[in-house]
Design a protein that fits this description.
Keywords: ATP-binding, Chromophore, Kinase, Nucleotide-binding, Phosphoprotein, Photoreceptor protein, Receptor, Sensory transduction, Transferase. With 707 residues, the chain is of the alpha+beta class. It is built from 17 helices and 27 strands.
Length: 707
């Protein structure tokens, strides 16, 4: 039963070491008050609607308004005013928080202690645990520090398991008290409403179970007050009865929140009345929040280390898997390596209709039932159990080898599985309550502790394995994702390779047909050129051979270079025979020519070189040839300049041959460019304008140009 529900039964009230006023949302008028409030205020009584400033004074009202305004929404964490003096001279610490339409003002006597001393104490406590990287040491230090600071007879730190049960992980107590260290408490000892309440109200204090609760008066208001987040809230009769039965007179609990859930609690017992003032409560709460952060940090560090190790395993596995043609065989061969991600005793791999085993596992005849369990329970998600016999009764016969199993589907569709087994682990668990007994009523003060005595129930747990943890699941999820990716990529690779092979064959046939037609057309054009008048048939044939050889060179470069080639490589190949007789330079950036441009320029360079041997620089002992090329951004074109010098009597040819026709007509027609020739006293200069669509930067993987 929640706090709100218990108040509907007439149990609303607060603890008597403080008093309470409830105001409207504007902090204008009083709507409720605790029965002891008039006495603390020095008044005979209170009435609904009294202005707050007339009750506590203008200064106190102003200070409370300012604290609430600066704090914002005071729900999970109250706004605080320390040492507030009231008109009658009383000095109080005030906690302010909202509760539905009301604003609750909790007043506690200020004990005159310096807040700075508590702040310094809190800083010292935090420094003591800041650098601790071990859970056990952290827990022991926390309970020792709180025992010394809060002065309780017993301080315990609980940790909740995945099933909601609790265990005392650390304890510090007086010399005459029996220890609860290591005891377990059933999940039913803290029902769901209690967990929700402790997840939002992070500290709960009961100062004296013998002190009768003070009722809250709500004249004319049919709705009971919501005291869920009130520090002064009294406990329920069942909780008080439990505490009195155990001899506990006062207690405090501090919630430990990790990743938004109730991870554990720090619980303090005292065997006489013990009230924490507001400063001490703030220290306890803030220290608890820092402990929660430290636990979160250690858990994430541990998880990060585990993730790194798993990623290392996956990376090594993926590197080896990349070139593998038979992935199922590779998985089977590396089954042992894959099991390092989680603590286990053995495993089985079902891939391609075949089992592969390592370590402990069920007998082979029993694997059919285990496989059926994988298909029905796991499907395409990871599934695990610590008690395989609960699903396969026959598994009780081989619990030593496989008491529990984790099933990892390793393909996008159900069919292939990795099964990880753990053998039986016999454990003796000490319960502070009989785990088979019915749970207590679901009140808001659900409390881990013995129900009626210090008796301990010892349970012998058999037939199960070590429970699978969240870290196990996270590591398994990472490995499963990698395996699914590898298997999926393997299948896709097979499909792509078959499709690509068919496509490459078709493209090769089409490209071969296209290139053969183009070469034949060019050769036909070369052969169709008439014999020049002053040339013998043998000379004509030799020139024709040279032109076809140049065309063959360009075609060879295009074939070897995937349809194009480097301009520098073309020039080096064409001009190599003349370097011994003439000084030749080729200067320009590495550029890549398309196949069409490469073929045309091969013929152009061949004709220019042939003419230069007969009439120009390549035929002179002191001749010089400079070929340069550069990009003209303004015209968006490449300019290739062929400049001959060192020719004593350079003259324009008396007739127009194939080279002239190729430059003036073929170059513009085939490439969309233009050429300009100019004769100067020392030789010839030919400028070719090549559109940028025929040129692109040279690929990095190409062989560097020759110097």
């Amino acid at each position: 039963m929640t706090e709100h529900a218990s108040h509907q039964a007439g149990e609303e009230g607060i603890q008597p070491y403080g008093w309470l006023l409830a105001c409207d949302a504007r902090l204008g008028h009083i709507v409720r008050w605790s029965a002891n409030a008039p006495a603390h205020l020095g008044r005979d009584g209170l009435e609904v609607g009294l202005p707050l400033r007339d009750v506590i004074g203008r200064e106190a009202t102003h200070n409370i308004r300012n604290a609430l305004a600066m704090h914002g929404e005071a729900h999970r964490r109250p706004a605080l005013v320390f040492g507030q003096v009231l008109p009658d001279g009383g000095r109080y610490d005030v906690a302010i928080h909202t509760a539905g339409p009301d604003i609750m003002l909790e007043w506690e006597p200020a004990l005159g202690e310096r807040d700075g001393a508590h702040l310094s104490l809190l800083r010292t406590m935090i420094d003591r645990i800041r650098e601790i990287t071990d859970f056990d040491r952290l827990f022991r230090t926390v309970v020792r520090l709180l025992s010394g600071v809060l002065r309780y007879d017993r301080v315990m730190l609980y940790r909740f398991a995945e099933d909601g049960s609790g265990k005392v992980e650390a304890e510090h107590h007086g010399p005459n008290l029996e220890s609860f260290l290591g005891q377990h408490f059933p999940a039913s000892d803290m029902p769901a409403p209690s967990r929700r309440l402790y997840s939002t109200n992070l500290i709960r204090v009961i100062g004296d179970v013998a002190a009768p609760p003070v009722p809250v008066i709500s004249p004319g208001n049919p709705l009971p007050p919501d005291l869920s987040h009130t520090h002064l809230r009294a406990g329920t009769p069942s909780h008080y009865s439990y505490m009195r039965g155990m001899g506990v007179a006062a207690c405090v609990s501090v919630s430990l929140m990790v990743d938004g859930r109730l991870w554990g609690m720090i619980v303090c017992h005292h065997y006489s009345a013990h009230v924490l003032n507001m400063s001490e409560r703030i220290v306890a709460r803030m220290f608890g929040e820092f402990v929660s952060l430290q636990i979160t940090n250690l858990l994430r560090t541990k998880r990060l280390d585990m993730t790194r190790q798993t990623h290392g395993l996956i990376e090594t596995f993926l590197k080896g898997a990349a070139p593998v043609a038979d992935m199922p065989a590779y998985l089977m061969a590396h089954l042992t390596d894959m099991l390092t991600f989680v603590q286990c005793d053995g495993a089985a791999l079902w891939v391609g209709g075949q089992w592969t085993y390592t370590g402990q596992h069920p007998p082979e005849p029993a694997m059919a039932a285990v496989l059926e369990l994988a298909r029905t329970r796991a499907g395409t998600q990871i599934w695990h159990t610590s008690c395989l016999a609960a699903y396969i009764p026959e598994a009780a016969q081989y619990v030593q080898d496989a008491a529990g199993v984790m099933i990892l589907p390793i393909s996008s569709q159900p069919g292939d599985y990795l099964l990880v087994f753990r053998g039986e682990e016999i454990r003796s668990m000490k319960w502070a309550a009989d785990p088979a007994a019915p749970p207590r009523s679901e009140d808001e003060d659900g409390y881990f502790g013995p129900r009626s005595s210090f008796a301990v129930w010892t349970q012998q747990v058999t037939g199960t394995c070590l429970p699978w943890s969240g870290d196990d699941m996270e590591a398994a999820t990472l490995v499963r994702s990698a395996l699914i990716e590898v298997m999926g990529a393997y299948h896709q690779l097979q499909l792509r390779e078959r499709a690509n092979a068919d496509l490459r064959q078709r493209m090769l046939n089409e490209e071969l047909n296209h290139r053969v037609k183009n070469i034949l057309a060019v050769v036909q054009s070369l052969v169709s050129q008439p014999v020049e008048p002053d040339m013998t048939p043998a000379q004509h044939v030799e020139r024709l051979r040279g032109r076809i050889r140049a065309l063959g060179l360009a075609h060879d470069q295009a074939v070897r270079s995937d349809g194009g080639g480097l301009l520098r490589a073309l020039l080096d190949a064409e001009l190599a025979p003349y370097r011994e007789r003439c000084f030749i330079t080729c200067t320009g950036p590495r550029i890549w020519l398309t196949g069409q441009a490469l073929s045309v320029l091969a013929l152009v360079v061949h004709e220019l070189a042939t003419n230069a041997v007969k009439y120009g620089a390549l035929g002179q002992p002191h001749g010089r040839l400079d070929v340069t090329w550069s990009h003209d951004a303004a015209q968006d074109e490449w300019r290739i300049t062929w400049r001959e010098s060192g020719v004593p009597a350079a003259t324009r040819p008396r007739r127009r041959g194939f080279g002239s026709v190729l430059l003036e007509r073929g170059f513009p027609h085939e490439l969309g460019g233009a050429t300009h020739a100019r004769f100067h006293p020392g030789g010839l200069e030919m400028i070719m304008h090549l559109p940028c669509r025929h040129v692109r930067p040279a690929p990095d993987e190409q062989t560097p140009d020759a110097p």
